[in-house]
Fold N-acylglucosamine 2-epimerase.
Amino acid sequence: MPQASRSASQPELTALFSDVQQHFLKVIVPLWQGPGWNADMALPHEALDANHQPLPAQRYRAMACARQLYLFASLIGQVPAAEERAAALFRSLQRHFHDAEHGGWFYSIDPQGAPLDTRKDLYTHAFILFACAHFWDKVREPLVESVLNASLEVITQRFASGDGLYEASLDRDWSSLNSGPLQNPLMHLAEAFLATLSVREDLAVQQALVELCTAMQKRFIDLQQSVLMEKPLGAVDNWFEPGHQFEWYFLLESSDLLRGSALHASLERAFAFTEKLGVDQQTGAVCAMLDLGPGSGLRDATQRIWAQAEYLRALTLRADSEAVVLRQLRALQQRSLHVGGWYECRDEHGEVSRRDMPSTTPYHLATCYAGLAEYLR
C-alpha cells in the first residue's frame, strides 16, 4: 500500500486517534455486545435509539449480519469474546438467511425469523463474501471457506451479466428483475474481491476484479469531470456521491493490482473536484449527493457519518495530507461521536437529524480506523 508522505509523526494526530480508537472499543463495540444483541435470534438489532434501546424490530437483514461478522472478525485478538461473537454471526447468516432451495441468501427475515424479502441482492452477497474472507483469514476453518466459495460461485454465475458488470438484484429463483447494474453494490463487490485476494491467491477473482473495474470506467465514469456516477451513463435521474468517490479512491489507490488502472486515473483526476463540491471547508462535512450537468450542484446536503469516515480514510493515501487528516479526524470526533455512541446524520444546517445508531455503521468506522492505523504506522 502506498504511504502518503508526511512530516515526522505529529503527536496531536497520534493522541487524537488514540482517543477516537478508545471510544470505538469502549463505547461503540460494547453497544453491539450488549443492548444491540438479540440473544434469542443470535442477530444484531437493526438499530439502537439514543438511550441504547433497540428500535422495534421490523426486519433483520443478511447484510447487517455480515457487516457485524466483519466487525467482530476484525476485532479477534483485541476484544474479549470477539471470536465467539463472530462465530455466532457466521452461524446465524447460514441459519436465518441461506436459501436452501435456490442457493444464495435472502435479503431479510421478519422479526420471527421467517423469510421476508426473498430477493437475491448483490450488495448483500458482496458483504457476505467480504465478511467471510476476513473471518476465514482469522480462523482458517474449512466451513468458513466453503461459504466464501459458495458466495463467489453465486456472484460470478448468477449475478454476472457477461460484460464485467453484475445485476444489482434478482428474484428468489435467480430470474431477472431487470435491475441492471448499480454503482454501490459493484463497489462493495470490488471491496469483497480485494478482501478475497488479500487472504488467498485466486486468479479467477483477480480477473473478475480487473474486468469489473474496466467496465466501471466504461459505463459509469462521467467523461467531463471523471466522477463515478451512481447509475450507468445515460440513465435517467443520475447523480454522484462524494462518499462513494472517496470510498472507490481508497480501494483503487490501496491495491497494487488496481493502482494505475484507467478507473484509478479517473478517480485521481476527480478527487479535487469532489472535494470542492462535496466537502464544506469550514466544518469538514461531506454532503450526500451532487448533480452534474446543467443546473449541477447540491442535491442532498445531509451529512452522513459513513461519508465522513470514507473521506478521512481516503485522505490517508493522499500526499502531504497530515494537516487535513488531522482536521477531518477532529471533525469526525467533534461532530459525529459523542459519549454514548455516534450521530448518524446531520442536516444541511449541521443539526443532528438522526439519533438512532444502525448496526451497519461500525463497519465504516472500523475500516476508517484501520486506514488511519496504517497511516500512522
User: Anything to note?
Assistant: The radius of gyration is 20 Å. The chain has one domain: 8-376.
